[in-house]
């Protein structure tokens, strides 16, 4: 079974392909379907953005598709940056600037609790489905580690002492927000495909 993952983020593709490797599902990217569009993400919730991206691909290409949207929700900042995580520092997808801004906002804060939340929207056979995944943790006071992407160097998942960027992808892929959402997607797909 072939399904489009509406992303060109190679880290996400690698993560999701590893997680779904055990299932008879071929994940293809936007590049694989020759889509170079800047897909709009203008909703005010993660659910809204994930649906917006998946609907865009289905409308334009007529393919079954899923899309994800992720936010980092920090308790001491009233759950910011949340849905605005990618453009927290103004320029979209500048992870260094985003982390710098977050560390500055968190200076002197005692409560460092945060969580990553991923929402996946799946459009399959004309129906829409949503799956979410959450990992709780804390924000560090400085960047640590070289692996992963985005806010990984400043997030320590619950139960660990190292950041996602120090833990590396093998551990991250077992416990992450995206892993949990993808597991739900997988379970749904495997049941839907075999029944
Ligand atoms: P998007 O939903 O993938 O566009 O991600 C929104 C923001 O969260 C971007 O700044 C990403 O770099 C960041 N982000 C998404 N997933 C992760 C992750 O697994 N670890 C760290 N940062 C992430």
What does this structure look like?
This protein has 195 residues and is α/β, with parallel strands linked by helices. The chain is built from six helices and seven strands. Strands 1, 2, 3, 4, 5, 6 and 7 form a seven-stranded mixed sheet that branches. The radius of gyration is 17 Å and the shape is globular.
Count of extended strands: 7
Q: Could you tell me the strand content as a percent range?
A: 15-25%
Order of helices and strands: EHEHEEHEEEHHH
Structural category is alpha/beta
Summarize the main sheet: 7 strands, mixed
Whole-number average pLDDT?
93
Radius of gyration: 17 Å
The shape is globular
The protein's oligomeric status is single chain
Comma- or semicolon-separated keywords:
seven-stranded mixed sheet; globular; alpha/beta; 7 strands; 195 residues
Short description:
With about 200 residues, the protein is of the alpha/beta class. It is built from 6 helices and 7 strands.
Topology:
Layout lengths: L1 E4 L4 H10 L6 E3 L17 H16 L3 E10 L5 E3 L12 H11 L7 E12 L2 E13 L15 E3 L6 H4 L1 H7 L1 H18 L1
Parallel strand pairs: 1-2, 1-3
Antiparallel strand pairs: 3-4, 3-5, 5-6, 6-7
Helix pairs in contact: 5-6
The structure holds inosinic acid.
